[in-house]
Amino acid sequence: MRDLLRARMKSTLRRIAPWFAFILHRSLLATWRVEFHESPAFQSARRNGEPIVFAHWHGDELGLVFLLPYYKSCAMVSTSEDGSIMAKVVELYGAKVSRGSSTRGGVSALRGLLRLARDGWSPSVAVDGPKGPRHRAKPGVFELAKLTGGRIYPLVADCDRGWVFRKSWNQAYLPKPGARVCIHVGDPLPLLNKDVDAHDVGLAQSLEAALTNAKRHARSLIECPADSVS
């Protein structure tokens, strides 16, 4: 009887956890001062309806998740228990999800993203997942770019104050109430043709550099007075 009650309680918590997380995130979002800084190349690509693939670091998700419907972007989310919560939050925000990671269900997740891309969604990939090493790009995003014909755009978020989850491998953070949040989309990597090797170390290094530079730019904007940034 005790085991049955424990199982029912666990099942109930699993059902309500995503709703609690969504309501908490939306409540915080309502207080954030969000600024968008997009490269001219990205703005042009959006106007022209060009295929786009977003690349971001693990750890930035909580500062980026609300953007998915704004950019009509779909996300790859792991099949873990934490991933189930994030997947539901993404869906509650009105975006699409493909479940899987580079270590579990990667092929089916990639196929799911490709189907969504054909329907006009822009895939967004945490390129150093699912368990690191932190800030080391993996080949999946390059395969995705080759198959969709989209350029890879570095997407980052930063804030002037937030809670950092120090015990997590990715140092995830959540902006605090009233935080100034900067969203930056940088210049794209060159278009990849189908002959490019997705495992090319040089490709990974180029993307890592692009994301590092985008993060530095976002940090520099955060450190400027808000009324001095156009």
What does this protein structure show overall?
With 230 residues, this protein is α/β, with parallel strands linked by helices. The chain has a single domain (2-228), classed as 3-Layer(aba) Sandwich (Glycerol-3-phosphate (1)-acyltransferase), CATH 3.40.1130. Helix content is 42%, strand content 20%. It contains seven helices and nine strands, in the order αβαβαβαβαβαββββα. The protein has helices at 2-29, 40-47, 61-64, 81-92, 106-118, 140-148, 201-223, and strands at residues 33-38, 52-56, 73-77, 97-99, 122-126, 151-159, 162-164, 173-175, 180-185. It has a seven-stranded mixed β-sheet, with helices on both faces. Strands 7-8 form a two-stranded antiparallel ribbon. Helix 1 (2-29) crosses helix 4 (81-92). It is globular and about 60 Å long. The mean pLDDT is 90.
Please give a quick description of this structure.
With 230 residues, this protein is of the alpha/beta class.
Topology as a string of helices (H) and strands (E): HEHEHEHEHEHEEEEH
Give the overall average pLDDT: 90
Helix content: 40-55%
Query: Please, how many helices?
Result: 7
Tally of extended strands? Answer: 9
Q: Major sheet, described briefly?
A: 7 strands, mixed
CATH 2nd-level architecture: 3-Layer(aba) Sandwich
Radius of gyration: 18 Å
What ranges have pLDDT less than 50 throughout 5 or more consecutive residues?
Answer: none
CATH topology, by name, is Glycerol-3-phosphate (1)-acyltransferase
State which percent range the strand residues make up.
Answer: 15-25%
Assigned CATH class = Alpha Beta
Question: Span between N and C termini?
Answer: 63 Å
Cross-sheet strand order for the largest sheet? 1-9-6-2-5-3-4
Q: How many structural domains?
A: 1
Outline: globular
Structural class: alpha/beta
